[in-house]
Amino acid sequence: MNEGKPISEMAYHAPSSVDDAGISGERLATRAAKPLQWFLKLLPGIALLLFWQWASGRLIKEIYVSKPTAVAHRLFELFASGEIYPHLWTTGQELVLGYVIGVAGGVIGGYALGRSPRLARIFGPYVMAFYGVPKIALAPLFIIWFGIGMGSKIALASIMVFFLVFYNVFAGVRSVDRELVNLTLVMGANQRQLTYHVFLPAAAPFVMLGMRLAIPYSVIGVIVGEFTSSAQGLGLFIHEASSTYDPAGVFAGIAILVAFVTIANFLAGRLERRLLRWRSLSGAGPIDI
Amino acid sequence: MSDCVLAFDGIGQDFPSPGQRSTIRVLDGISFEVGRGKFVAVIGPSGCGKSTLLQMAAGLLVPTRGAVRHRGRKVMSINTEVGFVPQQAQLFPWKTLAQNVELPLLLRGVAADERTKRVASALGSVGLKGFEKHLPSQLSGGMQKRGSIARTLVYWPDIILMDEPFGALDAQTRMVMQNDLQKLSLEAGATVVFVTHDITEAVLLADHVVVLSQRPSRLLANVPIELPRPRNMFEPFRNPGFEAAYDAVWTEFRSQIDIGHVH
C-alpha cells in the first residue's frame, strides 16, 4: 500500500501520518509489544527465583542459600518489627552524604583541571597515583582517622565516587571544541559566561555518565566501611547475619541495597532526561543500560 | 584607501612543525587593506594560511611578524568588534535556534526586549522565521549555516569574517546562499572578509580578490572586480564583464595549481 512512495519519505513521515491505515496498524502492534516486552524482561528474573526456590533444599542445603520465600518473610519481619529502620537510616545518610560530597569534589576538581592545562600538568600525576590506590585498603585507616561512626563511611564512599566523576568531567571539559570556545569569545563572552554557556552544557553528558557510574561505587564504599567496623548500618546487619548463619538475613540486606541502587538509578535517569533533553531530541538518547 | 577599516600590515607567520625543532613559514609579508563597506575575498591554494589571516583579525592569534590594524588599533587580544562565521555552522547543540542567535546579545548585556526584537529581525533577514524553537540538529545544513550567519549579523559587527562558509554545502544550496549573502551585505553595507578556494565564488561576491600563493604564502595580486551589482549568482557567465574579471584572477592563480597533482 506504500507503493510509489520513496522509502526515505516513508521513514521520515512514519510517526506523523496517523491517518494512513498501514501506519495505524503498526502503532497497534507497538502498543501490544509493550506488555510483551515487560514480560520478556521479567521472565529471566522469575525463572531464576523459581529455580532458586526449587533447588534450595534439593540441590543445595537451605542453610547455605536460603530461599526466596524465606527471604521475603524475613524482609517482612524486619520492617514489621522496625528492627531494620535504624540500620536503614544510618546507611541511607552515609550513602547520600558520601555520594554528594564525592560528586561535588569530582565536578569541581575535574572542571578545574580540565580548564587549566597548567593545573592538569601539576596535579595530574598525583590524581593518577591516588586513583591507583585500592580504596578498600584505606578503610581501616579511615576508621582510625574518622572513628567508627558515619564519618569513616562517608569518607570511603566519597573517595570512590570522586575519582569516577573526576575523570568523566575532566574528559568532558577537555573534549569541548576549541573553535566553539573561540567563537564564543569573539561574540563577547567573559570567563564566567564561557563556563555557563559553553563548558558546563558541553560537559553535562559526561557529568551525568560519571554520576550514574558512581552510584554502585558509593554503596560499595559504605558497605565495606561498615563491614570493617561500625555500630549501626546495613553493612553491619549483613555482616552479623552471615556470622550467625542466617542466609535469609544476608539476602534480605542485599535486597534492600539493590532497591537503594535501583531507586537512585531511576532518579538519576529522570535528572538526565531533564538536563539533556536536547540530546534525546538530537537522536543521541540517554545512556540507559 | 582613506576609509580603511582593517589593514594587514606585513603579516608573517611561522608554525612549529610537528615532531621537529624547526618551524614552517606559512605566511610571508602579506599586506592589504579592507575599505569600509567593501567585500574582500581571499583565495589561495589549500594550506596556504588564508584562515590564519582571519584568526589574526579576530585576535585569536598574534602574527609572528607584522600586525593587523582594526581602525588604526593594533589587534592584540580577542577582537569582539568582528563577527566570525566558521566553516562549520558551529551552533550550540543545546540551545534552540533563537537562543543561539540571542547569545551574543546576552553576552553583551543587551536588554531583553531589544534582544527579542533583534533576534526576530536577524532570523527574518536570513529566512528562518518560524524555526525559532528548533534545535540545530533538527535543521538542514543550509539552515544551520543561515543560523550561524544570523548569529553574527545580530550584533552588528564592524567587520564580518567568513572562513569558507559555503564550502560544505551542496551546489544548489550554495548558490542560493551566495545570492542571499550578496543581498544581505548590500542592504547592510557590511564590510566582509571572505576566505574561499573557489574563484567563481570570489569573483561573484567580491569588490576585491586577494590572491595568495602556495606556502610560504605571499600576496600575488589584489584584483579589483568592477562588475555591476546585484550580480547574477546562478548564471555567472551572464554577468557582463564576468569573463574578463575571472581571467584576471585566474591568470594570477593558475601558477599556483599543479594540474594533475594531489594536494
Put the structure in a nutshell.
Chain A is an all-alpha fold and 289 residues long. Helices cover 80% and strands 0% of the residues of chain A. Chain A contains 13 helices and no strands.
Please tell me about this protein's structure:
The complex is a heterodimer of chains A (289) and B (263). Helix content of chain A is 80%, strand content 0%. Chain A has 289 residues and is an all-alpha fold. Chain A folds into two domains: 7-55; 69-281, Orthogonal Bundle (MetI-like fold), CATH 1.10.3720.10. Chain A is flat. The two termini of chain A are 37 Å apart. Chain B folds into two domains: 1-81 and 158-263, Rossmann fold, CATH 3.40.50.300; 89-157, no CATH class. In chain B, 43% of the residues are buried. Chain B has helices at 50-57, 97-107, 112-125, 141-153, 171-188, 199-205, 242-254; strands at residues 4-16, 23-35, 39-43, 65-70, 73-74, 82-85, 159-163, 191-196, 208-212, 219-224. Chain B has a six-stranded mixed beta sheet, sandwiched between helices. With 263 residues, chain B is an alpha/beta fold. In chain B, helix 2 crosses helix 3 (112-125), helix 3 crosses helix 4 (141-153) and helix 6 (199-205) packs across helix 7 (242-254).
* CATH level-four homologous superfamily name of the largest domain in chain A: MetI-like
Helix/strand/pairing category of chain B:
alpha/beta
Largest sheet of chain A: none
Outline of chain B:
globular
Tell me what the CATH architecture of the largest domain in chain B is.
Answer: 3-Layer(aba) Sandwich
Number of separate strands of chain B = 10
What would the CATH topology of the largest domain in chain A be?
Answer: MetI-like fold
Shape of chain A: flat
Oligomerization status of the protein chains: heterodimer
How many structural domains does the protein architecture of chain B include? 2
Can you give keywords for this protein?
heterodimer; A: 289 residues; mainly alpha; MetI-like fold; 13 helices; 0% strand; flat; disordered N terminus; B: 263 residues; alpha/beta; Rossmann fold; 2 domains; 6-stranded mixed beta sheet; 4-stranded antiparallel beta sheet; 32% helix; 25% strand
